[in-house]
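User: Working on a comparison across species. This one is Peptidase from Pristionchus pacificus. Can you predict its structure so I can line it up against the others?
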Amino acid sequence: MIRGSHHHHRRDPKLYDKSCDEEAFKLFLADHKKAAAHFHRAEHRQRLCKAIEEWHHQAQSAPSQISATDSEYKKLLGSSVEFRHANTKAVPKPTEELIPKSVPDYFDWRDKGAVGDVRDQGYTCGACWAFTAVGALEAHNKIKNGGNLIGLSEQNLIDCNTQSNGGCHGGWTPNAYVFVQSNKGIDTQPAYPYTGVDGTCHFAPDKVGGRSAGFVQIPAGDEEAMKTAVAHIGPISVSIDASSRAFSSYASGIYDDTACDNTKHNHAVLIVGYGTDAAQGDYWIVKNSWGTAWGEGGYVNIARGKNQCGIANYPSYPLV
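Assistant: Here's the predicted structure for Peptidase from Pristionchus pacificus:
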């Protein structure tokens, strides 16, 4: 369940693109009600219409291959990533910095200007691995180097990190840190803007905005070490099960869902802080990549201390 206030976004029919086939739209919505929360994002209306039309065509030609399952739905929206461990290099052993120590009861890197704006991966690109990697790299480069927070390019990773990750077809976040290290940097977001589709690599060494020196894998299941890392080092990347309908329609409160499977990992997000609610308990402050219209301005508070959705299975952060 989700503790705290909860509501579903209402869709405004005035914002629908008239180019969408009405019958296809109705069929799509009937099978994928949870998509309604995202339909008011005008910048993705064209891509959504194309996806609906493709889905409708496939449903008509091969109905046995198209089902109203969460996996099919997430492939359509680009919000499901089948993480792959292939080519993940050995990682440094956890340092003494990760030994649980005294930390404040509440911490949020947004308060220190180390977290970039919430971005939107869109409906057709399953590259959440790139978004959480970029969010972490932006934060850790800012924390280490000071100055202004520099926006980095997810598209640079999607187009160029093709040996160990799969672009819009999924990936594994630590592979991105290793790639940026071997690539000697990652371009800025303005220099290499997001397109939401797999493209040809055009990395420009003179446009580098951030670097990586590898990464640290936090011991699995150790949420106290995660808490220490967040408070003393910086935001951390995690992978979770985001297949529950309650997650896709999350609006506010603490997400504590018994339907969430802590052994599945199909979505990557970024922990930027943590807190404790007197009535509802401990939680992580988590940045998503589904735009600001989702959740609490693009964020979700996930229950802490119980490995909710597998959040403590693969936590990591980049070295810079």
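For your comparison, note: The longest helix spans residues 128-145.

User: Helpful, thanks.
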